[in-house]
Amino acid sequence: MQIYYWEYFLSIEDDLYKTSRFVEFVPENYNTFSIEFSRIILSSCSEIDVIAKEICSIISEEKKASNVSDYREIILSRFPKFHSVQLNIPRFKIILNPWSDWEKSENPSWWKSYNRIKHQRSSHYNEATLSTALNSVAGLLSCLLYYFWLKEGDRVTIEPSPQLFQSKYLIQYEYSSIKLDFNLPDDRP
């Protein structure tokens, strides 16, 4: 397993978790924007680019994946239920489905915000919101789960476990050894 991918995710997730000390993770604050959310969004979406390209190259060596629309086409060709992955943040009673727009052949609004923040930050700084940060980190976790599944098989054990996120498809959580196993909504790789 590419452990550095997981370590990087944990670092980003930890940064997101720390923001909860200053901005409560509740719907009333979803439009709160900040430089810290901007940094988390840029980091997580940049990492999604890396992981999604890896997934696409495993699925199809022939098709070139250079943007999120390419990722959508290639990933959904192999994993048609990818868009239905839900991630929970139990502490805040939040359920996220970051890739749900792929079901409609559209890219997620949080991804569009990421691109505007990245390329036109001065005029779109206010899109660096809590909601976009939550969904971009959840989007990264979704990609990582599928990537590890492709690389490691149908029962992936990831250690250490995330601080915030759990999956709707959680099948086992052992407190003593901090193992978190995910069973994803698609067929075996």
Word description of this protein:
The protein is mainly α and 189 residues long. The chain has a three-stranded antiparallel sheet, covered by helices on one side. A three-stranded antiparallel sheet has the order 3-6-5. It contains six helices and six strands. The radius of gyration is 16 Å and the shape is globular. The protein has helices at residues 3-19, 35-59, 68-78, 109-119, 121-124, 130-152; strands at residues 87-89, 94-96, 156-158, 166-167, 170-174, 179-182. Strand 1 (87-89) and strand 2 form a beta hairpin. The model is unreliable at 168-180 (pLDDT under 50). The protein has one domain.
List the helices and strands and how they pair.
Blueprint: H1 3-19, H2 35-59, H3 68-78, E1 87-89, E2 94-96, H4 109-119, H5 121-124, H6 130-152, E3 156-158, E4 166-167, E5 170-174, E6 179-182
Number of domains: 1
The total strand number stands at 6
End-to-end distance: 15 Å
Largest sheet: 3 strands, antiparallel
The ordered string of helix (H) and strand (E) elements is HHHEEHHHEEEE
- What is the overall pLDDT average? 87
Q: Give the strand order, joined by hyphens, for the main sheet.
A: 2-1-4
Radius of gyration: 16 Å
Low-confidence stretches: 168-180
- Assembly status: single chain
Tally of contiguous helical segments? 6
**Envelope shape:** globular
The helix-and-strand class reads mainly alpha
Binned strand content: 5-15%
| Approximate helicity band | 40-55%
